[in-house]
Design a protein that fits this description.
Blueprint (H helix, E strand, L loop, with lengths): L3 H4 L3 H8 L7 H5 L3 E3 L3 H6 L5 E4 L5 E5 L6 H11 L5 E7 L5 H13 L3 E11 L1 H7 L4 E3 L4 E4 L3 E3 L5 E3 L11 H9 L5 H11 L6 E2 L2 H6 L10
Parallel strand pairs: 3-4, 4-5, 5-6, 5-7
Antiparallel strand pairs: 1-2, 2-3, 7-10, 8-9
Helix pairs in contact: 6-7, 8-9
């Protein structure tokens, strides 16, 4: 199922007001340890695309920006050049403008046995939360912000329709539920429907420590 054409028109509703400011300098972008997503959407909607920056150990990478169409390719290039990377330190990821790419990227991260970490000042929202969950082991520090909300699309009449308004039997729900199942989330369907009802596509809900624990966001085996 391709969600990208439906989701792109909704970018200004949420990501536009939360996207990162201050793009990396051209010098940084040329550095061999920086892998920035090449996305037409970034120019169109003026946001910083997802960027991986490998640290001096060559075993960890900082991750910032909005997940977009070129993010899977950027990740592939990074792991090809630095195959020892086993931890992604997420900094600020306001979401995704291409859910198909985000799910593909997140599954790949999980399949490669890579872990994810969110520091006390870190923030992930929407698709960024799905990216955090991709880690085979995960840790979100106290103070980290984890945001969720419903997805939405524009129908043929240009009306914004929230995914929560579709029947539960609708096939549009399945890719997300299957993703949570694939990564071994303990309550995949419960978590999916929690996100759908937590906030509208225009808003965001930040999960409490109790909710993070309930849905198994932190894994006891995290050892970085």
């Amino acid at each position: 199922m391709v969600l990208e054409p439906k989701l792109k028109p909704l970018i200004p509703l949420f990501i536009a007001v939360t996207a990162l400011s201050g793009c990396q300098s051209s010098k940084d972008n040329l550095a061999p340890y920086v892998f920035q997503s090449q996305c037409q959407e970034a120019d169109e909607y003026d946001f910083d695309p997802l960027t991986f920056t490998v640290d001096s150990s060559f075993e960890q990478a900082r991750v910032n920006g909005v997940i977009c169409s070129g993010s899977y390719t950027a990740f592939e290039k990074m792991t090809k050049q630095y195959p020892k990377v086993k931890l992604l330190r997420l900094k600020e990821i306001p979401g995704s403008v291409d859910d198909e790419t985000n799910l593909r990227l997140s599954k790949k991260i999980h399949q490669m046995g890579i872990s994810t970490y969110l520091g006390e000042k870190g923030i992930v929202e929407s698709g960024g939360t799905d990216l955090f969950l991709s880690g085979v082991t995960r840790k979100a520090e106290k103070g980290a912000k984890v945001g969720v909300h419903s997805w939405a699309f524009e129908d043929d009449d240009g009306k914004v329709v929230g995914g929560v308004n579709l029947p539960k039997s609708s096939p549009e729900h399945q890719p997300y539920i299957e993703y949570y199942q694939d990564i071994g989330l303990s309550k995949p369907e419960e978590f999916y429907w929690f996100t759908m009802h937590a906030a509208s596509a225009e808003g965001i809900y930040y999960m409490s420590p109790q909710q993070l624990e309930h849905f198994g966001f932190n894994t006891p085996s995290f050892a970085f």
